[in-house]
Amino acid sequence: MDQVLDALAGAGVLSISDLNQFARHGGMIEITRKANRFGFSVNIDAVNRNGLRVSSQLLQLAEVIHQSDERRRKP
Q1: What's the CA gap between 31 and 42, in Å, rounded?
Q2: Cβ(15)–Cβ(27) under 8 Å?
Q3: How far apart are CA 40 and CA 32, in angstroms?
Q4: pTM, two decimal places
Q5: Of the residues 7, 28, 66, 73, which has the maximum number of CB atoms within 10 A of its CB?
Q6: How far is 68 from 61, CA to CA, in rounded Å?
Q7: pLDDT grade for 7, boundaries at 50, 70 and 90
Q8: DSSP per position, 8-72
Q9: Contact yes or no for 52/14 (Cβ under 8 A)
Q10: What are the backbone angles phi and psi of residue 30, rounded to the nearest 5°?
Q11: Helix boundaries (H) for 1-75
Q12: pLDDT tens-place string over residues 25-74
């Protein structure tokens, strides 16, 4: 996963996956399933780095992830 995301970095390509922790590892949108409901996470830092924009209405429905926050949590 990291190699693919590195290859796409800066290319303006929207990355979407259902892989666990995809958004936290630099992917843009991660599709999740909890019980019988689907949801999604958006890594806003990855989206912005690639020159893309996500509407505010879509972000209201998502779990928004900031990679800068994730880096601070790592030992």
Answers
A1: 9
A2: yes
A3: 5
A4: 0.78
A5: 28
A6: 21
A7: low
A8: HTTTTPPPEE-STTTGGGT-SEEEEEETTEEEEEEEHHHHHHTT----HHHHHHSEEE-HHHHHH
A9: yes
A10: -115, 125
A11: 2-8, 44-49, 56-61, 67-73
A12: 888 899 999 889 999 999 999 898 888 899 999 999 999 998 765 554 44
